[in-house]
Specification:
The chain has 330 residues and is of the alpha+beta class. It contains 9 helices and 17 strands. It binds flavin-adenine dinucleotide. This is Flavin-dependent dehydrogenase.
């Protein structure tokens, strides 16, 4: 079977990587001239190693500590010897994985009226298509804006900081970067408000600025039809904006479903990633409905920091949720 994968981000490239050497001949079409161009803070949490081998040269640092701030005040801190994740060089990681699969750059895909895949205006004969175009294919209502500076702030390469605010349904972050730090903010707000928040976080000399939208609705049920993976399917943790690892996990489920002739939608619905993404999205939905972030605030201030970090990382079970939110969330 010839599979056309539209989009060369973590979801598209990993899907082809999971399928290499199998009966499925996958080709990834990336519209841009290179991979890894999309603005991103390059944080990938632990667990990824059981899906992909991360080339050493693509790992900038190993994360061993998390700090969580509410209104710029430290409320949770976990630091130890355990590796909690990585800061990767995302373009290099995608490039290295891309070298092992059939990846066509400068290959913008459109679908013609009959639904045929056209690359730079020419129809490509494929048997099946998977769309991995990230937030680009999502409605504005299913995403929030996120903006980021890269600065020369010297920052501990083993620590990531997450910021939450009582007047913003969203998040801020300071992540280590080879140049210093990536400092960003995303949320339900107009850009000028986010810019103000970002200014409040920013330290060091600004070297560059960029932004993009991020999905925040959890898995999109209508897209569980075997045609979408990654952020295009909604695979981003809504409370933290983490999308790389979840996107790769959806691609693994897609690859296994294709190879074993299973229904992708069913396999997804049974998976832990589906449920944990849904819980995150529910937390955001509730906050939106009540027009308040009080619930999240209470959790951040009162709960065991280790549990808060587990929740943030999507590494929680029902009991953890009850401890954090009470039985209302389940
Ligand atoms: C500012 C910011 C910071 C972030 N930081 C983090 C972080 O630190 N950690 C984390 O886990 N997540 C982070 N995210 C989210 C993360 O970047 C995404 O969730 C993740 O990259 C999604 O992977 P994907 O492969 O599904 O989509 P993408 O990475 O968006 O890749 C989609 C690809 O499809 C290509 N494409 C789109 N349309 C077409 C077309 N018609 N034809 C061909 N190609 C096309 C695009 O050029 C792109 O390369 C961040 C997001 C933002 C905006």
């Amino acid at each position: 079977m010839r599979l056309g994968i539209v989009g060369g981000g973590p979801a598209g490239i990993s899907l082809a990587w999971f399928l290499k050497g199998t009966k499925i001949q996958a080709t990834v079409y990336e519209g841009l001239e290179d991979v890894g161009k999309k603005p991103c803070a390059w944080g990938v949490l632990k667990g990824i190693e059981s899906y992909l081998e991360l080339p050493k040269e693509a790992i900038y640092s190993e994360i061993r500590g998390f700090r969580i701030f509410l209104d710029n005040k430290l409320v949770s801190e976990v630091r130890g010897r355990e590796r909690l994740g990585y800061i990767v060089n995302k373009p290099l990681l995608l490039k290295r994985l891309g070298e092992k699969v059939e990846l066509r750059l400068n290959s913008k895909v459109v679908f013609d009226r009959e639904g045929k895949l056209k690359v730079n205006g020419k129809v490509e004969e494929v048997d099946r298509v998977v769309v991995a175009t990230g937030h680009y294919s999502l409605d504005k209502g299913a995403t929030i804006p996120a903006i980021q500076y890269i600065t020369d702030l010297p920052f501990d390469p083993e620590i990531v900081d997450m910021y939450f605010y009582s007047d913003l349904l969203g998040y801020g972050w300071i992540f280590p970067d080879p140049n210093g730090a990536k400092i960003g903010v995303g949320g339900y707000a107009e850009i000028p408000f986010l810019m103000e928040k970002l200014k409040g976080l920013t330290r060091g000399k600004i070297m560059s600025f960029h932004g993009a939208r991020v999905a925040d609705n959890g898995i999109i049920e209508d897209r569980l039809n075997g045609r979408y993976v990654g952020e295009a399917l909604g695979a981003v943790y809504a409370v933290t904006g983490e999308g790389i690892r979840p996107s790769i996990i959806t691609s693994k489920i897609m690859a296994d479903s294709l190879l074993e002739g299973k229904d992708f939608g069913k396999e997804m619905r049974r998976s832990k990633i589906y449920w944990t993404l849904k819980v995150h999205a529910d937390v955001i939905r509730r906050a939106k409905a009540s027009n308040s972030v009080k619930g999240l605030e209470r959790v951040l201030l009162k709960a065991d920091p280790k549990l808060v970090i587990k929740f943030a990382m999507g590494d929680f079970g029902k009991l953890d949720l009850i401890k954090l939110f009470g039985s209302a969330i389940i």
